Amino acid sequence: MEKIVYLDNAATTKPFGELAEIYADCSQNYYNPSAVYGGAIDVRKKFESARKNIAKFLGGETGNIIFTSGATEANNLALSSVKFRGGQNLVVSLGEHPAVYQKAKTMQNAGTNVTYLPISADGAVDTTRLAEYITKDTAMVSVMHVSNETGAINDIKTIAKFAKKVNPQVIIHADGTQAFGKIAVDLYDLGVDMYTISAHKIYGPKGVGALWVRSGVRVVPTAIGGGQENGLRSGTENVFGILSLEYCAKRVVQELPQNLEKVAAYRKDILSALDASGVEYKVNGNGSPYILNITFEGLRGEVLLHTLEADGIYISTGSACSSKKPDNRTLRAMGLSDSQIMGTVRISFSAYDNIDTKFVSQKLIDAVLDLRKKISGRK
Ligand code: PMP
User: 121, 224, 310, 321: which is the annotated catalytic residue?
Assistant: First the structure.
């Protein structure tokens, strides 16, 4: 089989090869960390040290890490932990991942007052309009740090500062799944109370993540059982997952500057090649260089995806369905039309793959020109 050029790293990343060593160690030292014999206590010590280190990598040493099965569970746990008293509202942005957005919808259906923050054409929450949505009755604000669709970076610091000013009791949560290890994250500087991360977006295994919680902030557990994670998330700990998350977190934080430079160059190369080719395109969202969300109006993103797949290049569409009416809540909230949404693809980079951007750009340009020719021939 030909070599695959994997450019769907916002969906998941290729795990670091070094995780095999962690796995080997965990399969030798497989004891249940809740047990009281020496071997089990050693396992426990390792992941308690991982907990401390991960909080440190986030710039939130004195906060608490609760390990979960990933970002979806961490986001759900965050939103479930806040009590909304008499008409108090939950504020989320229209660009949230379904793990926040659908959870908020479910809470709304059950009677919670939910307010949706609009996003601007650049994909980020418009911080000049916060006063219209965040009030003294806002009990919680949950806004993602970086969009999984467009890479747009939200100004969490400004949002948190504003919300705390109008209601000092407000709880600020940010879904940092696409941010941590990719852009600089310092939780005390951001001013959040809760922050979500996931291992498989930073070259770790699927099915493990964490919710960071500021010390003193209440968490209401949803998984009740044996009392692990200080009673906040029961279930025998995913030791391999947790130790892997620690390894990956350490590495991506240490290597962040050179990684950023590498993926920014990939992005720049592709855009320069598109410019030189004269192909018409529009970039959506300007933030994290890890994600290039791009519209080729008039084309079907899905057809473009499969054309590139035939050349061994894996990307993603910007449209969640292949029916006549395309949908993508984020792109729609940014003001894109049906035909723009239909013609949108997402290319997302890994800092640990070496990409031949010349090859990728040429295949992309060829595919766009060829599909445009076919379409105009049909008209
Ligand atoms: N939030 C964001 C921003 C994401 O990109 C993702 C993964 N697509 C999730 C949450 C869900 O993460 P997980 O797969 O770890 O549950």
Answer: 321
